[in-house]
Amino acid sequence: MDALIRSARILMVDDEFTNLQVLRKMLESQGYFNLTGVQDSRQVVELYQEIRPDLVLLDLNMPHRDGYGVMEDLQSLDVAVRAPIVVLTARAGRDSLLQAFQCGARDYIMKPLDMAELFARVRTTLEAHLAHKMLHAQKETLDWMVQARTDDLLRTRMQVIHRLGRAAEYRDNETGQHVLRVSHGAALLARHAGWGETDCEMLLEAAPMHDVGKIGIPDKILLKPGALTAGEWKIMKRHTLIGADLLSGEDNELFHLAREIALAHHEKWDGSGYPRGLAGESIPLSARLVAVVDVFDALTSVRPYKDAWSVEAATRLIRDESGRHFDPDLVALFDRLLPEICEIRQRFADQNNHSEVHRYEST
Fold this sequence. Notes:
363 residues; alpha/beta; Rossmann fold; Hypothetical protein af1432; 2 domains; five-stranded parallel β-sheet; Cyclic_di-GMP/3'3'-cGAMP_PDE; HD_GYP_dom; phosphoprotein; CheY-like_superfamily
């Protein structure tokens, strides 16, 4: 600790050159070598920011800007660990000392300087400050380690959820390209709907988990080639609730967005969707974006029980469902961006031309 104290950066402020020289010699005699002196109090703030001192020895009675004003200036700086200020003053009055403490002084030394008192107060103040700096640095390191570990755990969980979503698609006889087409299509719509790039990137990450809840649907229902019974539809619709449950419990924007989409992407603009029967703008915009491209992709993909619809036929249905199933503004946007949507379909085309069982109800 001794070497650390001796190497501490000390900023000395006094308008009298002689006083600075005396102070410097006194400190140097005790092994302090990292010393900076300044006479013009108007330069203190700039110098403070430049050298980041561990201690400021400050005269109170100076022209231009007295010690009180300098302390107020230093207190306004945004710094993680503030250097302690020890005022050097010939003013022994209670009011002047009280004002100094109110302005931010940590301690004071009366003039004329007594060497023993100076050395004791400088050392004591530096010991406390350097210990505080070390604790602050340790806390920052621990905070960083905790955050890194938290981020790592979050990434791990996200990977697990992504894999569950992909597993749900594979169980549904899907190659996995469906979720890529949906996520990129939804992000494209969002970008042109005015979302910022960061939010669009988050949607790109969250949208692939829209059907993650299918992992909890029995195979005999999920893979049934024919029409589902009313009871089977009731079970099938639960995949939205299952997905939302899988994605809950994390205080994280990405998980919140993914949960929002998983829960609400089968809601309809007119309120006839599921699971909560939301209508209009009460349906989260993220889910409305995913719904349009999800249905379009389902219609234009081959199913075990049907051929793929043409882009023209699927687009007509999307238009027809404007104001019923879909947000009218998003349908208009989808119509305008159709060439780019089709380019996304080509970029992430199925390799085996075999797609998931993804049933669509227009009413």
